[in-house]
Amino acid sequence: MQSENFAKRYGLVIATGLVVGAAAVALTFWGNPANMGFCIACFLRDIAGALNFQRAGFDAEVGTGIVQYIRPEIIGLVLGSTAIAFLRGEFKPKGGSSPMIRFIVAVFVMIGALVFLGCPLRMVIRIGGGDLNAVVGLAGFAIGILIGIQFLQRGFSLRRAYQQSMAEGLVFPALMAVLLVLVVMAPSFIIFSAKGPGFQRAPIAAALVIALVVGVLAQRSRLCMVGGIRDAVMFKDFRLISGFAAIIAAVLVGNLILGRFNPGFAEQPIAHSEWLWNLLGMVLVGWGSVLLGGCPLRQLILAGEGNTDSAVTVTGFIVGAAVSHNFGLASSGTGIGTGPVAIAVAAGFVVLGVISVMNMQKLEG
Amino acid sequence: MVDARGYSCPTPVIMVQKAVKEGSPKKLEVAVDNQCSVENVTRFAQSAGYKVAVADFEGDFKLTLTK
Q1: Which residue among B15, B47, B52 places its CB closest to the CB of A365?
Q2: Contact A244/A9 with Cβ under 8 angstroms?
Q3: How far apart are the C-alpha atoms of A106 and A180, rounded to whole Å?
Q4: CA of A222: which chain B residue's CA is closest?
Q5: DSSP conformation class of A264
Q6: pTM, 2 dp
Q7: A219 to chain B, minimum CA–CA distance in Å?
Q8: Does residue A236 sit at the B interface (CB-CB below 8 Å)?
Q9: For a disulfide at A126, which of A134, A229, A231, B61, Cβ 3.0-4.6 Å?
Q10: Predicted complex ipTM
């Protein structure tokens, strides 16, 4: 087999990054919150709110919280992945690789993401918008990944997965289809914010179609924020990180065109400047995501391909979002949460440490 | 043979990396069960100077690395 040429090796992942970046700017232009064209953590948190698992910022006057909405972007990403996986014969239901450990790690990854105010994807999008707090987050994210790599190199593994039934693999995509029906029908038991970020949303059709396209591309290119830094460090493989860079470039250019590039630390949209917490939150996200084998975006894509461990992980994210908001751990534009943030973050490090150490094993074939 | 079936990346690549480091074998067979791992192991093996051939293996994939 010939060595891949540059275009084949980097073309698809860079194209995906550019599309993700452009899509993020477009979705913001069409109504999504600023610097939040895509944010897997925020959007899963909004879905948790729509299902009334949390009612952060509840306002009695309007009768809703501020982050409650079924984000079609999440549905589109998963179903785009499912569709292309079926077309290419890559839909393979599998699972059983320490699902409960993954669930717990996911809860803490979400807590970390909501302390920072964004998943790794939104971190990159925030950087492209000029939010320097996100550069602090990136430093933490990289530190977290480096910590995780130490354990990977010492044999960390959540053990192997096994083939599952087609029905098992289809549960998560089916749930997304149910959410799609719910967001379109908007029955009264589903709650959509009447104010706040949850009220800022791109039209359903636009969000869904864009996310479907991104879901297809992300499945094909294996785009992953964590994988980018991890592979560059571990294998000197710069393929995935080039996608990461492409997102920043596209978002930057898009924001410059729309006059929305606003460099600085202060008064950034849906962000805070408590640097220590921005850093520590993303250390938790980076480390946890290495243990999970991919960033939250990648988990959605894998769940779409029938990976039930990733489906459990996404469920953990949703529970983590509810925990974050119900216990005052999530930050807001005014600063970190009013709850026991330090205790939660410290607990996260202890839990990740114990899980990392306890799952080091000899990797024999 | 390195049997990395059931593992998701980067574990299969780490297993191959370890096998290559320990013995620098002229020939190495690797089994994986997903296309993503096929791509990742192939990329790693090529960067380590191996030629890679992919074949079907009980419904999964077998990569034969040679140099």
Answers
A1: B15
A2: no
A3: 24
A4: B36
A5: B
A6: 0.96
A7: 10
A8: yes
A9: A134
A10: 0.92
